Amino acid sequence: MIDPLHTLRLAAVNIDGVMLNDSFSPVIHQFVTARGGSYTAELEAGLFSQSQLTAARTFAEVIPTPLPPEELVREYLAERAAYVAEHPVHLLDGALELLAVLRGLGLRTVCYGGLEKDHFDRYLGAHAELFDGPGYVCTNDFRPGLREITTELFGLEYRQVLFIDDVARVAEQAKALRVPFVGHPSHYPHSHQRAAMERIGVRHLVRSLHEIDAALVRRLDREAAADTVWPADR
């Protein structure tokens, strides 16, 4: 008989960068540099895990453009479509095994991200039975979405939900809310997300989804109960 977890009840996993490969960082980097911009940590922070229009406005503030935000979004999505046509989106190594670990420990699981549900249906629809509740939550209208997913959709306490994400802005909100968190930052060479997570004080940073095993989840369960997931002095 599996020893049950005592505090955690739900695991929320980001779709792009956790379940699927990171198909955003390369496109955003190219989108910025091709228009004469410098791809800095500050700019990246203003673009990642924001609504599409907010990210477009941030871009326009840094790199002058005559295009309105809505047109910038359309241009970006067109460039991303061209990129993924040559570099197909795919399940990350260890993604399904991660879900097996989480569900094997008795956790419900839900997927979330900034794109519409058809993105989930296309790439994870064949595994929809591995997710609970709505299955997928589009957070474009309420980025980064930790509060809404935890309290509004599932009616849980912050300490009861484990979030797994590749973006430091999500880690920032997790820290503010004392939410259990595992960071899986991008391996893209120009990405600033790992360094940003380290500055924030993320204690559980992994390079591979295989590192998120039952032992780590049980440790997070104990830390959630004791409110020690996040350092008290940071």
Automatic annotation (TrEMBL):
The keyword Hydrolase applies. GO terms for molecular function: hydrolase activity. Keywords: Hydrolase. This is Haloacid dehalogenase-like hydrolase. It comes from Streptomyces tateyamensis. The lineage of its organism: Bacteria, Bacillati, Actinomycetota, Actinomycetes, Kitasatosporales.
